From TrEMBL:
InterPro entries the UniProt entry points to: Tscrpt_reg_TrmB_N, WH-like_DNA-bd_sf, WH_DNA-bd_sf
Signal peptide feature range: none
Source organism superkingdom: Archaea
Domain (Transcription regulator TrmB N-terminal): residue spans on this chain: 14-62
Full protein name: Helix-turn-helix transcriptional regulator
Amino acid sequence: MPEHHDDSEYVDAIRDGNHATTDIADYVGVKRQSAYERLHAMEERELVEKETVGNSLYWTVDED
């Protein structure tokens, strides 16, 4: 049975200084692809934003 992680865990990862998809995945305890899919869904709901830096994605949270 797959583990379920709340969006808040991903937001916490970003707020704790993890901005790369791989770092966020490690923080939450999921595979990189799973983290990317969740972050992408969160971006569509405007919970996070992404920026491409070189070949990497840099995820941020609007603190307003």
